[in-house]
Amino acid sequence: MKFDTIIRNGTIVTASDTFRCDVGIQDGCIIALADNLFDAAEIIDASGPYVMPGGIDSHVHLAQPSGDGIVMADDFASGTLSAAFGGNTTVMPFCMQEKGTTLRESLKVYHEKAKGECYIDVSFHIVVTDPTGYVLGQELPALVEDGYTSIKVFMTYDNLRLRDDEILATLDSARSSGALVMVHCENEDAIRFLIGRHEKNGELAPKYHATSRPVAAEREATHRALSLAEIVETPIVIVHVSNREAMEEIQRARARGSKVAGETCPQYLMLTADDLDATELDGAKFVCSPPPRDKQSQAACWEGLQNGTFDVFSSDHCPFRFEDDQGKLNGKGKRNFRWIPNGIPGVETRLPILFSEGVGKGRIDLNRFVALSSTNHAKLYGLYPQKGTIAIGSDADIALWDPNKSVKITNDILHHGSDYTPYEGLDVTGWPVRVLVRGKTVTDGATLVGAKGSGNYLDRARSSLAHSRANS
Ligand code: DUC
Ligand code: ZN
Ligand code: ZN
Q1: What three-state secondary structure class fits 441?
Q2: Which of 38, 174, 325, 471 meets the CB 3.0–4.6 Å disulfide criterion with 179?
Q3: Element (H, E) at 400
Q4: What's a single GO CC term here (predicted)?
């Protein structure tokens, strides 16, 4: 047989083109794109759905320690399963450096957690929380050579945030090694001041999470991160941008010549701070950082997806259970918003929401959908062209999308470990009906076909944004 699998009569959509042909797959790779392919062990009829690169979600959290007594709702098995049902073929979770440990020690822990568990391919970003001379001078350059080519730093959270001098040292090391730095931009001192003021006033409900983390705290930190990156000439990614003012900081930095990528997420298109002001403690379901803003901010984020301010659309899947004393409603979280774990589930709903609200409502076209959901993630994080496109030689990571399938999103139909979805009741049109990773079907849309452990760990090349400055 010439092929293991042929996907026949499909409309192929890439980030740049839409065209009709068959896809021939062998040994997990695309080896032919042509009409009338024949001679395969398996023929998949794709005359109805679109044939798209599988989604790459470059911002997810799985099995991450999240504070005393708090347990994340997804491990690598449930998180990658949920991702597959949402049309994804690769996810990029974070490996969190525990203070006082090396990056290699932290990686060992996360590789153990992921080993034999994943349904789709995975690759780690490393969160640097303890940027010692050894970490920045010895470990990071060696890790980049080994394929760990992106890191994240936090400007908020007492136990995670780096001071400005530490951020500069980290950026400087990243520039010379060619690592790409993702930055969580919120001003910790301002947030702590506002939390303290709310506590003094007895304002403890979930809605005060939003007012304790205002736009100005995000805008200021975004400006500072971009300025620090400019000083040491290091490309950065501003992750989970929630509003226009932070977007304008990115636009101004680019106009000054800085290399900056931008990311936004479904919560900033679909939720507002009003969702945190729900009855009882339901607002805790929407606590994430930065918090959702207002309708004008949602419109701004859509503009950013259209005009290129944002390169990637990620879920920031960071799931906790709601009715659970190890989750949102832990003993302290019930009494005070500051103890509600930050983060919401979304790896399975990211793409249906972007497809339905974006393509379906005419805000973006199909090719932009593919760019924002897959191709740009692969390029930004050093996986292209192995991943993120449909081309000869690329991995056969493919999602078949039925553009007309209408689905009401409810927690019952999802596969994550959380007991709720922030998008309960949302009607979407467009759904992934078959997902293949390296040519093997993981789900037919309704049932699981793939096996736990079939996902690979991916070493990565340097970022398209970072490598041109490497070693300069
Ligand atoms: N930052 C993230 O990237 N995810 C969840 C929580 C946070 O602060
Ligand atoms: Zn973050
Ligand atoms: Zn995150």
Answers
A1: strand
A2: 174
A3: strand 398-408
A4: cytosol
The separation between the first and the last C-alpha atoms of the chain, rounded to the nearest angstrom, is 49
Sequence-distant (6+) residues with CB within 8 A of 329 are: 281, 284, 322, 323
Q: Where are the beta strands (DSSP E) in 308-397?
A: 312-313
C-alpha distances out from residue 9 to 16, 21, 43, 339, Å: 19, 6, 10, 53
pLDDT at 78: 98
DSSP designation for 234 = -
Q: Is 240 in the pocket of ligand 1 (CB under 6 A)?
A: yes
Q: What digits encode the pLDDT tens for the residues 279-327? A: 889 999 999 999 999 999 999 999 999 999 999 999 999 999 999 999 9
Residue tagged 């003993």 (tokens): 331
Instruction: Return the structure tokens found at 75.
Output: 């491990």
Calculate what percentage of the chain has a pLDDT beyond 90. Answer: 97
Domain residue spans in the chain?
A: 54-364
**Residue nearest atom 1 of ligand 1, based on CA coordinates:** 289
Find all residues with CB under 8 Å of 413, minimum gap 6, and list them.
407
Whether the pLDDT of residue 470 is over 70: the answer is no
Instruction: Using the Cα atoms of residue 243, residue 401, residue 419 and residue 117 in order, give the sign of their dihedral.
Output: negative
- Among candidate residues 111, 108, 182, the one with its CA nearest the CA of residue 139: 108
DSSP string, 157-217: STTTBPPHHHHHHHHHHHHHHT-EEEEE---HHHHHHHHHHHHHTT--STHHHHHTS-HHH
Q: What is the reported pTM? A: 0.98
Most distant pair of Cα atoms in the chain: their distance: 73
Copy the structure tokens of residue 294. 């207002």
Distance 46 CA to ligand 2 centre (A): 38
Q: Residue 360: is it exposed, middle or buried by C-beta count within 10 angstroms (0-12/13-18/19+)?
A: middle
Residue 334 per-residue DSSP state? H
Model pLDDT for residues 43-64, shown as the tens digit of each residue? 999 999 999 999 999 999 999 9
Run of H or E including 9:
strand 3-13
- Average pLDDT along the chain: 97
What is the topology classification, in CATH, of domain 54-364? TIM Barrel (3.20.20)
Question: What is the per-residue DSSP string for 83-149?
Answer: HHHTTEEEEEEEEEPPTTS-HHHHHHHHHHHHTTT-SSEE--EEE-S---HHIIIIIHHHHHHTT--
CA–CA dist 211, 146 (Å, integer): 42
Q: Whose CA is nearest to atom 7 of ligand 1?
A: 289
249 CB under 6 A from ligand 1? Answer: no
Place of tokens 């690598």: 76
Q: Is any ligand 1 atom within 6 A of the Cβ of residue 409?
A: no
Query: What whole-number distance in Å separates Cα of residue 288 and Cα of residue 276?
Result: 10
In the block, tokens 């695309």 appear at 30
d(CA 450, CA 437): 9
CA nearest neighbour of 409 among 362, 355, 348: 348
